[in-house]
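Support reply, case 0932

Customer input (verbatim):
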Amino acid sequence: MKITFLLTWADVLGGTERAVFTQAAQLAAAHDVEIISVFKTGERPFFTIEPRVTLRYLVDRSGSGPESPVSPTGLSPAECAALAALPTEFTAPAWERAIFTRLSDLELGLLLPAIDCDLLVTTTPALTSAAVRLTRPEVLTVHHEHRMAGIPPLPSAPQLDALVTVNERSRAQYEQALGDAAPLLATIPNSLPVAHRPRSTLTGKTVVIAGRLAAEKRVDHAIRAFAKASSEHPDWVLSIFGDGPERSALHALAGELGVSDRVRFHGSSPHMSQEWAKADIALLTSRAESFGLVILEALAAGVPVVSYDCPNGPSEIIRHGVDGWLVPTGDVDAIGAVLAGLMGDRAALRALGTHTVAGAERFCAERVTERWENLFAELEARRGDFARRRHRAERMVCRSALDS
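Our regenerated output:
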């Protein structure tokens, strides 16, 4: 089977991008796999691409000049700039309308009607809107939802062959929202890339949080909680991995709280498996997480995870009191108390650590790939069936009726 993943951009450090590169590498052992990135934003992808996976781009945004098609074009630079200044015509939520343009519409409009694949996997609402509108009927279309909590606008869902979420709670939300207009719904979690992962000895005094330094990650909560906990344990440090718009404010906050000597900013690292092996506690304070690959990375390194019980992913990965601790979301005092308790009780910390690797193995590559293969087989069996097209048309009518 030829499988194509459609990404907004392949060059950035992000959870969706990491998941797609991992899925593509795992599937390439048995399939012809390609990743198409709408935008090229750098010289090379942040994540290493499996040699058997093809990567190509549609629109170049990597230079200082106006964006332009990667393929040869008859458009002048002025015409490219004019199209890039116009918003997309595909159905998209506000956050995507700030990304996609009439120029990217043009390139998707050239790509999708002629795309040479059996199955197309989209990763955002805008890309799904383009895919269901433009791809040939014989191409199986799957949307893999990587977004955060709740269900983002997905009016194109009834036209899909399948909608896959990374957590069960999101699948149930889509089932309720779409009703009879829902395509095949499935939950397939993300998995860790197959790699050697060193283990932490849990003999140090380091708390690690990793992620984009943006408001939704609430790293300020992590600093405040750590400040409370480390007042009793001043020899512990908080190591922060990631970059983003909140970095300066977070530096200032650490100073205000008097812990700037114990809070260390390391920027983004392509070698997080080694960094997790130096950690003793992993921390997650996000407002929402669709899944939480950093949780798996920490568990695989033998590091217990303390996390807000935010929607939707952490509670489906962390086994409370077994390999980590779930705290009511937004409760800085509570998360600080849990941190302080583990900092002061090495036996309790190690007890959690004995179960972490087994927790991560529930999401190993072999198990997750098997679920994808089962889904593909089910969809492939329906490809030539007239009932497939009829059911899709009926779902669209149901959706229209529900919206009227």
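We compared this against your earlier run and they match. Two observations from our side: The first helix runs from residue 15 to 27. The mean pLDDT is 91. Please reopen the case if you see a mismatch on your end.
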